[in-house]
Amino acid sequence: MKPIARMVSTACLLSALLIVSASAQQPAATPLKIGVLTDFSSVYSDIGGAGNVEATKMAIEEFGGTLFGKPIEIVSADVLNKPDIAATMARKWWENEGVDMIIDLPTSATALAVMELSKQHEKIMIVTDAASSDITGKSCGPYVAHWTYDTYSNAHTVGSAIVKNGGDSWFFITADYLFGHSIERDTGDVVKAAGGKVLG
Asked: Contact, 113 vs 86, CB < 8 A?
């Protein structure tokens, strides 16, 4: 991990844990638990998976493995890129296993499913891989931080630059899942606002 990325990741993790710790009504010996919901077995395992678990361990080690005298523990699970599995695991962790915060979430659909539970349980989650602009747009919640690019930023940088350079007629071949539909919607809006045409 690059030094600046590690520093920012550590700062985000520490900030989230400070919030969790300040609001926790638990005995001093109870550990602070971070759950990493990730993809260990599918298409996103190379950009997440075990690497994201290891990055979380490194961040914990960088500030001593404890916070306010409480040890920090990590648990992880494979969501199989299925929203129902992600939601089931998040509910189990938050209701039965004392997990204080969930991070990662490899797809937009898994992130949005867990975000609803985050609101209900008033628990923190940091989305580090999913990219739909709905995460920070219409589905945004008070306990969620989105730590990555999103389809809005991609559309407004790449999409608008292409239109300004003459690429004003667009035809989308879209991946049929939430991220694909989000990038098509957001880029299509940018193209039309810049005077371009979306042909299909």
From this structure: yes
Contacts of 109 (CB under 8 A, 6+ apart): 81, 83, 177, 178
User: pLDDT tens across 41-63, in order?
Assistant: 999 898 889 999 999 999 999 98
Can you name the CATH fold of 3-148?
Rossmann fold (3.40.50)
Neighbours of 194 (CB within 10 A): 14
What is the value of pTM for the model shown? 0.77
Tell me the C-alpha distance between 175 and 154, whole Å.
Answer: 16
Give tens-digit pLDDT for 131-152: 888 998 899 899 999 888 888 8
Cα distance between residue 115 and residue 86, in whole Å: 10
Distance in angstroms between the alpha carbons of the first and the last residue of the chain: 40
d(C-alpha 59, C-alpha 92), whole Å: 25
The torsion region of residue 104 among left (phi > 0), alpha (psi -120 to 50) and beta comes to: left
Residue 185 DSSP code? H
- Residues 150 and 179: their CA atoms lie apart, in Å, by 9
Closest listed residue to residue 105, CA positions, set 175, 3, 179, 185 = 179
Alpha-carbon distance of 85 to 114, in angstroms, equals 10
Q: How far is CA 182 from the centre of its chain?
A: 15
> Do the Cβ atoms of 186 and 180 come closer than 8 Å?
no
- The two tokens of residue 17 are 């844990």
Residue-range domain boundaries for the chain: 3-148, 152-198
